[in-house]
Amino acid sequence: MRSPLKCLFLPLLAAALVLQAAPVGAQRSAGAGAPAAALKQLFEEEWEWTLREFPTFASSLGDRRYNDHLTDVSLAAAARRDEHRRQTLARLSKIDRARLPAADQLNYDLFRKDLENDVEEYRLRLHLMPVTQRGGVQSSDELAELLRFQTVKDYDDWLARLHAFPTYVDQTLEVLREGVRAKMLWPKVTLQRVPAQLDRQLSARTEESGFYKPFRSFPKDIPDAERERLARAGREAVEQSVMPALKKFRDYFVGEYLPASFEQVGAWQWPNGAEAYAFLARRYTTTNMTPEQIHEKGLSEVARIRAEMQKVMTQVGFKGSLKEFFKKLRTDEQFYYKKPEDLLEAYRAVAKRIDPNLVKVFKTLPRQPYGVIPIPDTLAPDTTTAYYQQGSADGTRPGYYYVNLYKPETRPKWEMMALSLHESVPGHHLQIARAMELGEIPKFRRYGGYTAFVEGWGLYAESLGEEMGLYDDPYSKFGQLTYEMWRAVRLVVDTGMHYYKWDRQKAIDYFLDNAAKTELDVTNEIDRYITDPGQALAYKIGELKFKELRARSKVALGDRFDVREFHDLVLGSGAVPLDVLERNVDAWLAENRTIYDPKRPPARAGKK
Asked: pTM for the whole thing?
């Protein structure tokens, strides 16, 4: 899953929609009315503050009140927000947590932790690097894809944003200059992709620009005179405001910023590198695991999955080494489409095949639909194989599973099922859309996120293809193992580069030695980890927790275990930190009157 418009949106920890509930069996505390009311008021006021401060985030949710504003990304705004969060923490501390109902105690704890993380992130100066090869000023036009253009005001609001774009660029330049002074930078090897992205924006004809795209068509009820005015104004705004600002940004980026960037890769080069990376590892995994522990877990998972891969290789009768089998999977033409349109059609066919099989492992399915569409051509060469964009909060935009059609000859058929299970259903779309439909809870949780849960669920969802009867040939099963290996490798290479000071080529080579993904994909993946330290750790750590809790439940319930009930439980509380997820499952097991006890050996389970 990808969080688009990274520099325009409020960071969402994975940009996932989240809902959470109290653990099963939680009881309401007596005399909690006044503190609960104060907490509710605080949540509501802070949510409104968030929407005002991050208007493009508000727009992405379908709230049109701030559609004529861009987010202020200046250094002064960042400092002001940090001070506000500190004051909010002080205000929160005055609410008597002990007098809150159990559900609100969880809300309180999560809200406080999110604020503390935001304060720590600001202290570590991680906000000084708002541009990567995967997003920034050069991808700002993507915002238009998330908006509704139904009225004249919608178009005028977009015009206001186009006119504000030069200010937004100037603010971003201010932040980048401070990043240079503070030595908070990304490496040259990834940033050198950005100028070509800017060139594609600058060389496009006005009518072909993503910034102008809304003005290419209008609803039928907008009069011709207004259409002409808006189209003319849109053309002028793109040519006189947007393009000069992009040119100014490119001149600075190429002339000053890129030369100042690091020659080597890894967060260890920052002044506070070890501390910052340890923080990011904790934040993304929602655990207290150290980089050393995560690295060792990755090595053990890689070894386990390699053994599973050997079994499949034997099954298909391949006589060579695993490395030779990888080469066959990367190069044999039978595994690839030649045309982008054929690849897109095949992805859509895979999605249609998955949908009717969901009832085998789920009781509750979301109502919100999803679509399968291409990643924009401007970003496709420099981004990953696919990603998911959640639907709007107001239900007017479905979820979208974006697939990369660039160089279809490098995108193997055997990975399509596992990838689709992860990004659409039963992965991100099912989990996130269902969370949106769970009911009334604080908005900071509904629209926040925990990457370890969201991405851990996505990886776990890939394994469900087995039970749904979707891995019906050994090559697609090998694709699932390749994707699981991919996430295990992440634990090794992410900690390798950012903590153990591996160079980029060592990370690429380790990836290629252990997974059959193509070199183009591997390179883009490694570059993604370079510019998003710690994020890639969340997938495997989260998936292992889901599998651990499922195994625990199966032992505890024996013949009474129903995977559909288990999935209802873990998704029914929305995305939560992994320790909260574990408490919810243990409470559910206790409520079901099992004799499960974490301190007892599994052999005792099942006896009445």
From this structure: 0.86
